Amino acid sequence: CLATLIIMLVGDTYTLINYVSFINYLCYGVTIIGLIVLRWKKPKIFRPIKVNLLIPITYLVFWAFLLIFSLYSEPVVCGVGLIIILTGVPVFFLGVYWRNKPKCVNRLIESMTCWGQKLCFVVYPQGGGAEEE
């Protein structure tokens, strides 16, 4: 979020849309790759919708073409998009991967989560409810 706010303050909206578009295409492709890997490694698990593998493979071919074309035509935009994605890695390690955090770090993360939920009207904080407001 911080990187996006900086880009919005410094750059124009068209560039921000390009960054987000590249990130979205990258995430869609990784999701389809995950689908194919799961179909290959765990073929017996329940799936509410099961499609022929030709569909996701065809999608991946077009996805790879679009991604390579984007990397070739606008390498700076794609690089900044990758940097935006990589800004989430420290957040992941701080909030999820690091299991034995000090209590002060846990309290900070919980208060930031609560503040973000209230700001965005996402969900009520733990222990709270609609009656309190």
Automatic annotation (TrEMBL):
The chain crosses the membrane at residues 16-39, 51-73, 79-98. The keyword Membrane applies. The keyword Transmembrane helix applies. Keywords: Membrane, Transmembrane, Transmembrane helix. One of its GO terms (biological process) is D-serine transmembrane transport. One of its GO terms (molecular function) is neutral L-amino acid transmembrane transporter activity. This is AAA1 protein. It comes from Haliaeetus albicilla. The gene is Slc7a10.
